[in-house]
Design brief:
The protein is an all-beta fold. The protein has no helices and 12 strands. The strands form 2 sheets. A 7-stranded antiparallel sheet has the order 1-3-2-12-11-8-9, with no helix packed on it. It has a 5-stranded mixed sheet with strand order 5-4-6-7-10, with no helix packed on it. The protein is globular.
């Protein structure tokens, strides 16, 4: 089980991170695929290049924000994004609402819907309530910038 605070790999039955002591939340719906990052020692909020999904299915990749650049989240039929630890994509920062947005992934389209968040959800630098996503779209949730990758 990965720690959402520091990224340390812990035993599957651990309740607290062995490295930083943070409470561990069991992953329920998403799969985080570690991506090697070039440029060790760079500014954690610098945008990183995003590689194509490679047939792994539709995904959101954090490009900058919170020192988590490069984390990839495969999209489910319904993927929640927010500051709540129960969110499928947990973004732990005050700029993110507890239930910030939801991404719907069905056979015809992928779309994001803002959940009346305080700071809004942006797609390609425009604030949106509901918006269809196309490959390469940049989504901003609080201070986090994510890129949508189609299958």
């Amino acid at each position: 089980m990965f720690c959402t605070a520091c990224g340390h790999q812990n035993n599957p039955d651990a309740n607290y991170c062995a490295k930083c002591g943070a409470y561990l939340v069991a992953e329920q719906h998403t799969e985080t695929i570690p991506v090697p990052l070039p440029g060790v020692g760079r500014d954690p909020d610098t945008n990183v290049p995003v590689e194509p999904s490679g047939g792994q299915g539709a995904a959101l990749v954090i490009r900058s924000g919170g020192g988590r650049a490069g984390e990839r989240f495969r999209l489910l039929d319904t993927t929640t994004i927010g500051r709540s630890p129960t969110s499928d994509i947990f973004l732990d920062d005050v700029t993110v609402s507890r239930e910030h947005a939801v991404v719907y992934n069905d056979t015809n389209s992928v779309r994001v819907e803002d959940r009346a968040s305080l700071n809004g959800t942006f797609v390609n630098h425009e604030r949106v309530d509901k918006q269809a996503l196309t490959d390469g779209d940049e989504m901003q949730v609080g201070k986090y910038k994510l890129t949508y990758l189609a299958e």
